Amino acid sequence: MWKDIIQMNKQKQLWEKLAKKNSKYYINSDYGKGINNDRFRESGWKDFVRLIESDKLIEKNQSILEIGCGNGRMTEFMPRFFNYVVGTDISGEMIKQAKHRIAGIDFIETDGYTLPLDDNYFDIVFSYLVFQHMKSKTMVTANFIEVFRVLKPGGIFKVRLRIDQVDNMNKWWAGVTYTEKEAIALSEHIGFGVIKTEQVEDYGVWLWLIKKELLDKVIYRRWKRGKFATTKFYRNKAYWKFKMFNKVSQLSSFFEPMIGDKREVNIGDFGSGLVSAIGSTWKDVKVNLYPSDILADEYAEILKDKNYKPLFPVEKQDMEKLTYDDNFFDIIHCANALDHCANPFKVIREMNRVLKPGGWIYLTHFNNNAEFHHYKGLHQWGIILEREENPFELVDCRFRSLRSSFMLTECLPGFKNILRDGLVISIYQKPIV
């Protein structure tokens, strides 16, 4: 993660420099470094007509976001066809020039990873010669995730990726390469549907993507059947669970390096089940424990029927849509629950949102438990530890359902993974930027 952040900061600095040096040339180098304003605007209009206005998949009179707008070469013409237009770019100098050239459009500088825009807001997101300059696939994935977030359901994302091989990534124009198959796989595991693709000679591929819900009704029906099985399990085990864990006890020792020298910590125990089992005290540190589970209402009913009063009531939380504020938790713990989620990719991103900079995520799961259970009940995803060529070096986790798969570090780079006593343990510390 640090490597990617450093790389993006370098890329941001590079485009600041290029924008000040000759923004028109570095946006469109087809006409040479001496391109004048009239030729520059003409090129923007022609590309707008060719790539947007004449595209039958892009409906007009809607809202549109352009990622990598530069100084507004194409963005300038969008208000003629769209109700609301926003342009973003990592270069503050490019944004400054765009605002100077064009009135009536919201131009926003970004960090290259996130979009400071609302969820489900735009009908169309468009990006032309931008992703081909990104230096890592982590950057591309992060931006695809953000586009998915800000698009309305049914919204269209039109984007071009690089398919030609680059020998020297230090060149200003260089960026990561995708095969068409890899580009489709990336899009689909984030939740996009692929409408069509179109290769541009031997150096680029256009994607037309539509935002759809990642999980269809069949998966949710399977999840609901699994919910009833899980509730039945906890009803049968309620006496043992309650007697074993409903008490004030010290946190497990693995929390010690995560607590460090803090005097107070907020710990989220996500997917805690009937009763949190991780403990609630630590030496002279004030521990604020937040156990939560999407089945909290069902568990509360079980406890009420048996007249059990929990010391730490479990709060109802959907891990895909957490209600906690940003940067709230010092530590997030989740044991044997991610494989039960409908969309763990989204859950992990939500965990990162509510985690403080410098905070920790500690995940444990049985290795490929879903395969063992034949993907029945709540076992939606198999979580499998993968190895490099060295059979003793464990590097990443693959999340695999009956329909799709993704790597943990594709979702959130920086996790370290180990296998201990049949458990996959994944640990992540959020960078302090």
Please outline the helices and strands.
Layout: H1 2-27, H2 37-53, E1 63-67, E2 84-89, H3 92-101, E3 106-109, E4 122-127, H4 137-150, E5 151-162, H5 180-190, E6 192-200, E7 204-211, H6 217-245, H7 256-259, E8 264-270, E9 286-293, H8 296-305, E10 315-316, E11 329-335, H9 344-354, E12 355-366, H10 369-372, E13 382-387, E14 394-400, E15 405-407, H11 408-411, E16 416-420, E17 423-429
Parallel strand pairs: 1-2, 1-4, 2-3, 4-5, 8-9, 8-11, 9-10, 11-12
Antiparallel strand pairs: 5-7, 6-7, 12-17, 13-14, 14-15, 16-17
Q: What is the share of helical residues?
A: 25-40%
Order of helices and strands: HHEEHEEHEHEEHHEEHEEHEHEEEHEE
Estimate the global geometry from the Cα principal axes. elongated
Described by its quaternary structure, the protein is: single chain
The main sheet orders its strands as 3-2-1-4-5-7-6
* Category by helix and strand content: alpha/beta
Q: What are the segments in which pLDDT stays under 50 over at least 5 consecutive residues?
A: none
Mean pLDDT equals 86
Beta-strand residue percentage: 25-35%
CATH topology of the largest domain: Rossmann fold
Report the CATH superfamily of the largest domain.
Vaccinia Virus protein VP39
Sheet of most strands: 7 strands, mixed
Radius of gyration: 24 Å
**How many domains, in number, for the residues?**
2
